[in-house]
Amino acid sequence: MAKPIPKMGSRKNGRIGSRKHAHKIPKGVIHVQASFNNTIVTVTDVRGRVISWSSAGTCGFKGTRRGTPFAAQTAAGNAIRTVADQGMQRAEVMIKGPGLGRDAALRAIRRSGILLNFIRDVTPMPHNGCRSPKKRRWKCVESRVDSKRLYYGRFILSPLMKGQADTIGIAVRRVLLGEIEGTCITRAKSEKIPHEYSTIVGIQESVHEILMNLKEIVLRSNLYGTQDASICFKGPGYITAQDIILPPSVEIIDNTQHIANLTEPINLCIGLKIERNRGYRIKTLKNFQDGSFPIDAVFMPVRNVNHSIHSYGNGKKKQEILFLEIWTNGKEDPFHLEKNQHKVTLPLFTFHDILAKDKLRKNKKGIALKSIFIDQLELPPKIYNCLKRSNIHTLLELLNNSQEDLMEMEHFRVEDVKHILDILEIEKHFA
């Protein structure tokens, strides 16, 4: 026969009952989890065992009121009141979540009289942080070399917020026209020249015309200071830029530049001064010294800069594209402008590399359209899903459809077609 199981706490076992004694907890950890819908405050000891807890929901708050700072303050006060009676004097606070009750719960904990050792934010963050915004970048859309002394390039900077394109365009134009250094001839001297407006027997050009021809010579050098050069020629014949005797550090861009035409067998020797500077320098009466003639010096390699602005987008999300046109005299191309010694950082591209890429781009235009997916066009989710349902995955497939074909798609509107046309217009500038 089975024995009955004795009852705990009965008189037969000699045990009347047990009384729990409150443990003193001098130190603990307070966890605050603040979300947008609720705030939960949990108090544990140093081993992680829960002592008390409270939340905005258990305090009687319902609906959207559970996420308010006042609800978090009430929940924290209820959770701390229990442990304060058990003698907690010091605590560590761990705050987690982006809710509105973070600060209110912390203020309630500080008013309770518990000494806080430290406060730590343990909100989890995604790996590598939040996604960075789209980077602004320069891109060349057109480039050509008209001659050895005339380079042209058209560049785009995007995306820009409304008003930024004009500010950047003006600043870049002033920097390109005023801060880029260059090298040119600043002074000429010859014993056979009495004054600037005289003529020399046996030379077709006047002295003034020779000085103007010397002004047009384009030089390239990386050294600072004044350097000497000379021309020693015996006629008859044509004097060109290749007849100039230059120091090793100076290079002539166009050796075919005309200087003078000697019609008789005479010797012509001209001493030249070469300098590197920025901007331009106009000759004055004070510059006439030692029988030498100053030349109007144009040091800047950039001849002209134009900028224009194209806006796109709808409503409040309007953005701008900055178009920048640059003409140079051959001294520098945009690649050298980026590496200028005066820290004028313009991340543009070299003309020579782009001209080579243009030939490949024309041959592979069809292949390039196939390799551009609609995921790269930054379409709204609705338009993107409609195109995906219609088996349109690349830019080439999108261009093969007319506006009528797009309107026949399900859930497609006229505004969506206009939005696609705006995006394709922008992509055409970048292609």
TrEMBL record:
Swiss-Prot/TrEMBL GO biological process terms: DNA-templated transcription; translation
InterPro entries named among the record's database cross-references: DNA-dir_RNA_pol_insert, DNA-dir_RNA_pol_RpoA/D/Rpb3, DNA-dir_RpoA, RBP11-like, Ribosomal_uS11, Ribosomal_uS11_bac-type, Ribosomal_uS11_CS, Ribosomal_uS11_sf
Every DNA-directed RNA polymerase RpoA/D/Rpb3-type domain range: 152-338
EC number(s) stated in the UniProt entry for this protein: 2.7.7.6
Subcellular location: Plastid
Gene Ontology annotations for the cellular component aspect, listed alphabetically: DNA-directed RNA polymerase complex; plastid; ribonucleoprotein complex; ribosome
Main location per the UniProt record: plastid
Group of enzyme by EC: transferase
Enzymatic reactions: RNA(n) + a ribonucleoside 5'-triphosphate = RNA(n+1) + diphosphate
Keyword Transferase assigned: yes
Gene Ontology molecular-function annotations: DNA binding; DNA-directed RNA polymerase activity; protein dimerization activity; rRNA binding; structural constituent of ribosome
Function comment: DNA-dependent RNA polymerase catalyzes the transcription of DNA into RNA using the four ribonucleoside triphosphates as substrates.
Protein name: Small ribosomal subunit protein uS11c
UniProt source species: Abrus precatorius
